[in-house]
Specification:
- By secondary structure, the chain is an alpha+beta fold.
- Helices cover 62% and strands 11% of the residues.
- A 5-stranded antiparallel β-sheet has the order 2-1-5-4-3, with helices on both faces. It has a 5-stranded mixed β-sheet with strand order 7-9-10-12-11.
- The longest helix is centred in the middle third of the chain and has 83 residues.
- It starts with 16 loop residues before the first helix and ends in a 7-residue tail after the last strand.
Length: 782
Amino acid sequence: MIAWCKPIQNPKSKMSQPRLWRYLATVAVLAAIYFVTGKTVFSIPSISAAAAPLFPPAGISQAALFLFGRGIWPGVALGDFFISLGGGQPWYMALGMAFIPSLQAIAGATLLRRLGLHPSLESLRDVLALVALSALLSTIIGPTLGVTILCWSGFETWSKFTAIWWTWWVGDAMGVLILAPVVLTWFRGELRRMRSRWHQITLQPRRVIEAVVLCLMLLGISWAVFGSSTKIVSDRYPIEYLPLPLVIWAAFRFGQRGTVLATLFVSSIAIWGASKGSGPFIGQTDNINQAILALQTFMGVEAITALFLGATVTERKQAEVSLRQSEDSLANAQRIAHLGSWDLDLVRQQLRWSDEHYRILGFSPKAFEPTVEIFLNSVHPDDQQRIKELLDAASFHNQPFSTDFRIILPDNQERIVQGSCETIQEPSGRVIRLIGTIQDISKQKRIEKALLESEAQLLELAHNLDQKVTERTLELEQKNEELARSLFLVQQTQQQLIQSEKMSSLGELVGGIAHEINNPINFIYGNIIHTSNYAQNLIDVLNLYQKYYPAPEKAIQAVSETVELDFIIDDLPKVLSSMHNGAERIRQIVISLRNFSRLDESEMKPVNIHEGIDSTLLILQRRLKGRPGHPDIEVIKEYGQLPLVECYPGELNQVFLNILNNAIDALEQRMKDEGKMFINDNYTNSVFTLEAYVLNISTKLLDNNRVQIKISDNGIGIEKAAINKIFDPFFTTKEVGKGTGLGLSICYQIIVEKHKGQLKCLSGSGWTTFEISIPLRQRGQL
């Protein structure tokens, strides 16, 4: 059985009473939906009472049996039985006909299951399977058996067999093409995740506005095309395809779910228009049968086109995301390994460098268009001629190379790099591209040189007297220890630089986002008041008109009732007030983001400590909010009255971020230890204890010259044996892969060494507190 599908057990198998009632309820709901939708569509003109231009139950039944199991087929039979019975057929005929759609639905669901179709329909393979197997192939069963029984029993003549069969088959196929995708993509046993997705949508006003605009445009254009008499225009132009660009819009912006809803929306209006005698299909011919067939052709083309387009767009987006992730991973790997890459197109004379290639040569990434001349100018003068000859040999004689050489940075510092080059040829043998790498090996060369020097000294000591050998051996051991310490310091510095670069990048990203949002939100915030005033003036004018002209013209009165003018007058000020409150909230968020983005500021300045803490909490808001399997983390802030504190704001924010992250990790570990981290369909809130998960942040002024910040949590606590090592480099109490052990070490250096303050860790069973105290003024102590 497919993992994402949870079918109801076959009723013949032994089941508990709750399962039996759930099964019967499912069958009853399916029968009711089948009956209501089936009776509704038989108001549409058709060749025979046994067929319809669109038969939604055909698609609903196949999707239901696919999602919930073929054992609920009695719901299909019951629904069809009551439809036939209500249509005037004898009970025995209705009973016999009822099993035909059940057999068709079982066949379609079985074919889709055998092929392993995923209900999201986000791949071309799944869409092709739905169209070919479910819509075109399985729907042959219903009309073949049904029309045969109708003709054999005398309800229809054999002369109409082909026409009725065709209309019935197309109606069922349209029902599968239009209704089955809606059921499959929206009701696939994921109600919990559906609620989560709707919650996410409500947090994206732009997406909601875009969806509303799309629906309104679909309604307007579809009504104009299918709901009005357009015979003169439809005779000359295929206006029935005017809504198709909007369906394409839905596919590109809202995925397969939006696509199937847009298709259903347009098809429903087209059918409604045809039933009212309006629209291009009725306008093009006086023959109702031809009009219905034209309508079915339109719906089929629209549905198939939209499904394939939605799947294609989704696959392309997934491919683009995968490509971006691969590129980011490669760039990060190159940055960590100090390995740059380059690509020289000899035909176009175009040279491309990776970002790390720029950094190795001492330039900012993408600062200029790279050229071979710029590269050679960066090579040490003593190595330039050799590198130029190697490049020429690779270009003209297909000779790859790998060599070490020196480069001169813009600040005249010297680096040793290792360069490699490979050639790419065309079939004729001519070299058309050179690709290569460049890696900074200065550190390795220094270590190698130090080792060689140590080895030389060791060989020299071997030729001296025994006493001198002993003395020299001791000196060598001391040098080896110094070398090991140096290597350790280099590794520690490298990790600290990586951490600093991450925090700087985070600050730049947050600052950039805040800056880009700030201008448009200021424009909105600045104009919303004027807009409110203008709207109120217009409302006042309308009220005066209503007062002095209580009996307007009928056309004006009709438009007022259509647009619900009284409601607009009452609701418009409320809408503008809500927009004003939303804009004010966004401005406050932008201010917090800009405050946190000062991570890369190296200047000491007086700042508001509370703003830095609040900005850090905003960055960590995602981890603090509750979600399935993760209760809310309550933040209690007990701020004292503090003056501006002279400090390095960016580095102090980094301390807050590291300590708060560790506190949240401790709280989440407590959740896991208590068995709270259940993220599955069996999750319930009843497993959580009444004790809350709390972060407490307090500040106060000590002796008028020092500031104290306390950050406490009621997580798992820290063992006494680990507290003495908590600020040591590379020491961590987390699981392997979850921490480098540098966070608190860096915090200690920032507080103690750079701010002349104190950082203490106090902990017990179920609680941990970090106490930070720094001087109110730094300049007098530095």
